[in-house]
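Key result, reporting period 2: structure in, sequence out.
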């Protein structure tokens, strides 16, 4: 590393010396040519040979102003820049200096290390206690829409971990584009607002559009269907329910229009363990 750094520095110095020699030579040539080509003063000026004047003019046209001479040094400096970077890198990595020791101090193996471990344990226990205080003491429901899982919990205890189906996150539009629906399960904190055995499904407009059928009137008997939502229904607002399904083979997939479908046995367990006001956490 030291040899490479020394060679790099010598190369930079040679480049600088060459630049100065070229600049000095141009200045001397310009000054000498124009000084020797000046015509004699006095009466003999008109009979003087005009050739030196032409030569002087040509040399003057080649003369490089100081601003240009300064700019001329820039390419050489740019050429030397990688060498300078290499020198700095070699000096930082080597240059006879030892690399820094990245190993932890030896005192961390003793009392200080044990003290830090105990401090981290205390902080962890404090955060866990804070989290436990925020957990509901009563039974609550948690729905993971990404994994399509539903959990029944009480404090830190999990009473049920079951598969479910949530919103498909798809859009439906009428043929003329005048109406559209987006089917997604809402996220947030909710509560069970109503509980119904064998809930009646009142088919909304999108159900007929989806099936390619004409939309009937609001009180048309075709809108009312019983038995398709399972044995139990837990309403949590805006027409959304936790309910059963006739298509249990699709459980675990995001295929619903926003409601949460659960298998028969799991739905019965949720029905038995919850009541009006039970919290529902959906994420």
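The corresponding designed sequence is given below.
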């Amino acid at each position: 590393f030291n040899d490479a750094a020394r060679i790099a520095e010598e190369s930079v110095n040679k480049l600088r010396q060459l630049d100065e020699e070229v600049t000095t030579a141009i200045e001397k040539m310009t000054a000498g040519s124009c000084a020797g080509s000046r015509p004699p003063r006095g009466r003999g000026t008109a009979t003087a040979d005009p050739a030196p004047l032409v030569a002087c003019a040509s040399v003057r046209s080649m003369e490089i102003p100081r601003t240009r001479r300064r700019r001329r040094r820039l390419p050489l400096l740019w050429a030397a820049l990688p060498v300078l970077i290499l020198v700095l890198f070699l000096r930082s990595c080597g240059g006879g200096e030892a690399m820094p020791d990245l190993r932890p101090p030896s005192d961390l193996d003793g009392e200080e290390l044990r003290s830090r471990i105990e401090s981290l344990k205390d902080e962890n226990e404090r955060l866990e206690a804070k989290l436990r205080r925020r957990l509901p003491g009563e039974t609550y429901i948690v729905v993971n829409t990404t994994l399509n899982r539903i959990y029944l919990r009480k404090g830190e205890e999990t009473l049920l971990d079951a598969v479910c189906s949530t919103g498909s996150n798809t859009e439906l539009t009428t043929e003329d584009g005048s109406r559209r629906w987006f089917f997604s399960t809402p996220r947030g904190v909710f509560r069970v607002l109503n509980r119904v055995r064998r809930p009646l499904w009142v088919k909304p407009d999108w159900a007929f559009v989806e099936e390619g059928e004409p939309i009937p009137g609001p009180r048309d008997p075709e809108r009312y269907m019983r038995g398709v939502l399972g044995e139990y229904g837990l309403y949590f607002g805006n027409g959304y329910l936790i309910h059963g399904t006739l298509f249990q083979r699709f459980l675990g997939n995001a295929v619903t229009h926003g409601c949460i479908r659960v298998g028969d046995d799991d739905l019965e367990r949720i029905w038995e363990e919850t009541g009006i006001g039970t919290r529902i956490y959906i994420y």
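The radius of gyration is 44 Å. Residues 33-74, 95-103 have pLDDT under 50 and may be disordered. This case is discussed further under Risks and Mitigation.
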